[in-house]
Amino acid sequence: MKAVVYEEYAPDDDYKKILRVKDIDEPKPRADEVIFTVKAAALNYNDIWGMRGQPVPVPLPHVSGSDAAGDVTAVGEDVKDIKIGDRVVSHSNMSCRICSACTDGREFDCIKRTIWGFQTGPNWGAFQESTHLPEVNVSRIPEGVSYEHAAAASMTILTSWHMLVGRARIRPGQTVLIMGGGSGVGSFGIQIAKLYNCDVIATASPDKLDKCKELGADYAVDHRKEDWHKEVRAITKEIAKRKGEAPGIDVSFDHIGQTHWNKQLTLLKYGATLVSCGATTGYDAKTDLRHIFFKGTNILGSTQGTKAELDQALYWMGQGKIKAAIDSTYSFGQAAEAHAKMLSGKGLFGKILMKPEGA
After folding, report:
1. pLDDT by residue for the chain (359 residues), tens digit each?
2. Distant-in-sequence, close-in-space partners of 310: CB < 8 Å, separation ≥ 6
3. Which H or E run includes 150?
4. Helix orientation angle between 184-195 and 147-161, rounded to the nearest 10 degrees
5. Which of 142, 253, 137, 258 is nearest to 198 (CA)?
6. Which domains does the chain have, with CATH numbers?
7. What are the backbone dihedrals phi and psi of residue 351, each rounded to the nearest 5 degrees, phi first?
8. 356 contacts 2 by C-beta, under 8 angstroms
């Protein structure tokens, strides 16, 4: 079968030099695994890290991709629930399932945790015509949700749901700031916050502001402006006047990091929460501690989530309350072009998908 394979790293981001569509062996299911054809797969930034060989040297030869959706074609002898013919999507957080963290419902804190398609291999990921995963690492796709939308959601909707619902404990009526609303996690963050009937302020580059509003954001602010936080502060005053409460942000949803960190802290109400899943602009963020201790601020880290959380989020997709934002779709043969677009980020809104030829 065909797969997008690389056998060396590209620290210079020259993807054309290393990415090749090659024949690899078709997978056979282990006792606890399912095999499924890949109808659609989505790109994530860990695909870039893998090709760079940093911060983790991934196994070579490597098939990347952590989000895949398709049809089950075979199951192992110990598989209990998933059946041949089921439409499934990957849950890429692979944990041991037996340690104290896993049995406490915190599989994302498992010290043996790996991300499928990033740390797994050789030749084991989403960018192949057929792939395999343990039964516990696939979820059924709800009726009415396409393979494309399921693949575009898999990792990012889980990350966003865990940030807002699992970690920040979002409540109806709060004022929520979604940083980087044009990204995959940001686009889901907007919709999850609106699902909870919150007032949502999204930030994005100028070309993405209207699209953030189309997803449900009540306000959209250009975060490339030096004084973007002043505009957000003015909006919170409008909201506070309407609600009869103190101005400010209840929950700030962050994955931008260094460049916007401290300004987010200035916007928070007393007892508010900032939840972070990444640091796109850098990790060495300046923090004015007065905004932490004096205001009783909650700073929460977040990564991945549980399979139960993925199923919860997929349920709302099936109800039509949340949808995936898809930017573009490429074939396996266009893998280098697809990854270059993700890296540049120019004009990008939502997820980039790849499909096998003829899928």
Report:
1. 999 999 999 999 999 999 999 999 999 999 999 999 999 999 999 999 999 999 889 999 999 999 999 999 999 999 999 999 999 999 999 999 999 999 999 999 999 999 999 999 999 999 999 999 999 999 999 999 999 999 999 999 999 999 999 999 999 999 999 999 988 899 999 999 999 999 999 999 999 999 999 999 999 999 999 999 999 999 999 999 999 999 999 999 999 888 898 999 999 999 999 999 988 788 888 898 999 999 999 999 999 899 999 999 999 999 999 999 999 999 999 999 999 999 998 888 889 999 998 77
2. 91, 139, 154, 157, 158, 161
3. helix 147-161
4. 70
5. 253
6. 2-140+325-355 (3.90.180.10), 159-301 (3.40.50.720)
7. -95, 150
8. yes
The CA-atom distances, in angstroms, between 10 and each of 14, 115, 124 are: 6, 20, 19
pTM: 0.94
Amino acid in position 146:
S
Are 6 and 61 in contact, with CB atoms under 8 Å apart?
yes
| Burial status of residue 129 (CB atoms within 10 A of its CB: 0-12, 13-18, 19 or more) | buried
* Residues 199, 176 contacting (CB under 8 angstroms): yes
Q: How many CA atoms lie within 13 A of 290 on its CB side?
A: 3
In contact, 324 and 153? CB cutoff 8 Å: yes
